[in-house]
Structures are given as structure tokens and as C-alpha cells.
Design a protein that fits this description.
It contains four helices and 13 strands. It has 228 residues and is α+β, with helices and mostly antiparallel strands. The strands form three sheets. A five-stranded antiparallel β-sheet has the order 9-13-12-10-11, with no helix packed on it. Strands 1-4-2-3 form a four-stranded antiparallel β-sheet, with no helix packed on it.
Length: 228
């Protein structure tokens, strides 16, 4: 839902403005949407209900249904620089355009806050898909984020994923090197493209069944969707 703040509502609270401009949304519902991170003001997420808004401001309100509840977040390790978690399936690593609630970033911040620890500077060092489980590393301040970024860029961080694939690969060990680029459409899908960026993955078949196989995938590069 896209809304423009009229002159007569200039300076009003964000939740009040949403409720006034969208008759089907009560003020209580507006507060819940703001708290969930489903409201953007001039393109930036706003989670402060009392925030006064200016006339002409563009509001985006996502009314997408909430994601299914994910299992509790497991904290593997934490110190002054890093926080390492085991991300469950159905949980996005970072806030989405629909909401920040339900993301691993938000869940970790709340967990640290409950423990009385700083939680404002969290930054994910890498990403894994919503439906993928696995280790996710967060930096807790800017210097740690820069150091982690340099290590990932220099390919000094090893990662391995287990994938159940439909079909039986004709090989046991394979170095997959293909150039990928994002399609110029609304879906933004990734495709093999000679003009794209080279993506390299080392794949090993660990077990074979009648119709599929268990494959270990170690990405050498870190391009988006390269394992897909």
C-alpha cells in the first residue's frame, strides 16, 4: 500500500497517519505494522510509531501475511566482536521489504538485548537462503564487519553446504565454474551468462539413492544464488 502524507497530517505520529489514510487499518494494527518493520517512510524502514511525518512523505505499508513461525534461534558463540548463530529454516537472514520481524538479525538483536548486551551494531557477514539452515556470522561493530568482509573477499573463509538433489550426477567430484548474471526482470532471477561474473563451486557426491543424491558443495566465490 502506497500513501502520500497530506498537508493536514503534517507533524502527526506515523501510526496515526497510517490509520487516518487507510480506513481499513486501525491504529492498533498500524502500531503492529510499524513494530514489525513493515512500514517505510521515503524509502527507509521506520519502526518508531511516534515518529512525526512531514507533508508529502511517501509511505509504503506491506500487508503481506506473516511468515510461518521459525524455531527458536540457537546462539553458538558470542564475544565482543562476533555473534555466531545456527539459523533455522523459514527465517530470512536480514529484514525483508515486507518486514524486519522474524529475521535472524532481529531475533539475534532481541536475544542480546534480553541478556543486557549491546545489539545496535549487528551486521551479517554473509547470507544464506530463507529455507537453508546453517551457521550465520554477525559482526557486532564496524571494525569487526570490515575485517570479516576482507576475509570473505580474500576467500579465507571456508564454507560447505549439504544439498539433496533430484537426479544422479554423472560425476563424483566436480569443479563447477560458470558465469552468472541477474536477469533484468521483476523477479531478478540469476542465469548463466557469458558476460556475467565467474562463480566457482567444488561439489562432491557423498551418497547416491534411487532418484537423488547427497552432495557437498563448497563455494569458492560468494556470488548470490550460485549454489542454486
Amino acid at each position: 500500500m502506497s500513501l502520500i502524507v497530506p498537508e493536514e497530517l503534517a507533524g502527526e505520529r506515523l501510526d496515526v497517519v497510517i490509520a487516518r489514510l487507510a480506513p481499513d487499518i486501525s491504529r492498533r494494527q498500524a502500531r503492529r505494522l510499524v513494530d514489525a518493520g513493515s512500514v517505510f517512510v521515503d524509502g527507509r524502514r521506520s519502526q518508531v510509531c511516534s515518529k512525526p511525518v512531514r507533508a508529502g512523505a511517501a509511505l509504503e505499508v506491506s500487508l503481506a501475511p506473516p511468515r510461518p513461525d521459525a524455531p527458536p534461534l540457537e546462539l553458538i558463540a558470542v564475544d565482543g566482536d562476533l555473534a555466531v548463530i545456527n539459523k533455522p529454516a523459514r527465517m530470512p537472514a536480514e529484514p525483508t521489504r515486507e518486514a524486519s520481524a522474524g529475521s535472524a538479525h532481529r531475533a539475534l538483536a532481541e536475544l542480546l538485548r534480553e541478556r543486557g548486551q549491546p545489539h545496535e551494531g549487528l551486521r551479517a557477514a554473509h547470507r544464506i537462503d530463507v529455507d537453508t539452515t546453517g551457521v550465520l556470522v554477525f559482526a557486532r561493530h564496524t571494525a569487526a564487519a570490515q575485517a570479516l568482509h576482507a576475509q570473505f573477499a580474500a576467500q579465507r573463509v571456508g564454507r560447505r553446504y549439504l544439498a539433496l538433489v533430484l537426479g544422479l550426477p554423472p560425476w563424483t567430484l566436480q569443479r563447477i565454474a560458470l558465469p552468472l548474471s541477474r536477469q533484468r526482470d521483476e523477479a531478478g532471477r540469476v542465469q548463466v551468462d557469458p558476460a556475467g561474473a565467474l562463480c566457482v563451486t567444488l561439489a562432491v557426491v557423498l551418497a547416491r539413492g534411487d532418484r537423488g543424491a547427497l552432495v557437498s558443495c563448497a563455494p569458492v566465490t560468494g556470488r548470490m544464488h550460485q549454489l542454486r
